[in-house]
Write a structure and sequence with these properties.
The chain is of the alpha/beta class. 35% of the residues lie in helices and 12% in strands.
Length: 292
């Protein structure tokens, strides 16, 4: 997705040098079931990631990403649509609902509890959760919630982590690396089984830490990464900006800044043993509702 492109605005994305195909829901369930838990950490972009996963495992493009089991009749938009010879008429009040971020699904366990029949995966086979941690420094209560997700004893299946960060710190590379390093260190402190090394994790990050010390800590994480891949980790960088992006963010979060950020983050996270998925190139010629 860091290569390829679109032949025209909003045309289908075409990869270069590789194939891309849709996975069936059954295949997605099988892949996710390989992990004890998939932990997604980051901002609103990551909320869309977890929403997309829920759409696929629930086989519901319309309501799969939201808590539709507690919708009121007025919140079920199709019941308000009027079909005419001229097309579909949508009433002015059709979208007067709670914020999507409130009605979004934050963990699959909520779906299993409230609407188990909507999950296509076998019972108790998948566990996906998102913790929204949008900026650095990370508030103490957010780190406490993250620690609570990690068991002290090694589980039967590996945990997988998907990270996403950047815009809430104005694409400040060092802030993003400090954010990531704090979470990596917190992970090992709360779940020592993630690292084969008994070396004590480094101290929490501060912006005043010297460059040499940060590089040494990154090198140690690279040495300590589990040789069998028991700690699978992926970092997603933000998508391209659209024409509706507010002018006040054009310099700090515009496409030049996004391109530089994506390239720099890719180098740094690989040094830490993470895989990196850039989304700028895939999204540059696509429509974006608010430009973000």
């Amino acid at each position: 997705m860091a290569s390829g492109g679109r032949i025209g605005h909003d045309a289908p994305y075409m990869p270069r040098g590789c194939d891309m195909r849709w996975f069936s829901t059954e295949e997605i369930c099988e892949i996710l079931s390989r992990f004890e838990k998939v932990v997604i950490l980051g901002d609103s972009m990551m909320r869309h990631v977890v929403g997309s996963i829920n759409v696929l495992v629930r086989k519901d493009l319309g309501y799969g990403a939201v808590t539709d089991w507690n919708f009121s009749p007025e919140e079920r938009y199709p019941h308000q649509f009027e079909f005419t010879t001229a097309g579909i008429v949508i009433p002015d009040n059709a979208f007067n609902v709670k914020a999507c971020s409130v009605q979004g699904i934050f963990k699959t366990s909520d779906v299993v509890k409230n609407d188990p029949e909507s999950v296509a995966c076998p019972a108790d086979s998948i566990d996906i959760i998102i913790e929204q941690m949008i900026r650095f420094p990370i508030p103490a209560e957010e780190l406490d919630r993250f620690r609570a997700l990690l068991p002290a004893k090694k589980p039967a299946r590996p945990y997988a982590f998907i990270f996403g960060h950047g815009l809430w710190n104005d694409l400040d590379l060092q802030a993003t690396l400090d954010w990531l390093d704090t979470l990596l260190d917190t992970s090992i402190q709360a779940a020592p089984w993630l690292s084969p090394s008994s070396t004590k994790p480094s101290s929490p990050r501060t912006r005043s830490r010297g460059k040499a010390a940060r590089m040494a800590a990154a090198a140690k994480r690279q040495r300590n990464k589990h040789p069998s891949g028991f700690w699978p980790r992926l970092f997603l960088t933000p998508n391209a900006a659209g024409k509706e992006k507010p002018d006040e963010w054009i310099v700090s979060q515009g496409n030049k800044a996004l391109m530089i950020f994506e390239e720099s983050v890719g180098v740094e996270v690989r040094r830490r043993g993470l895989e990196h998925l850039g989304t700028w190139n895939m999204s540059i010629q696509s429509n974006k509702f608010d430009g973000v």
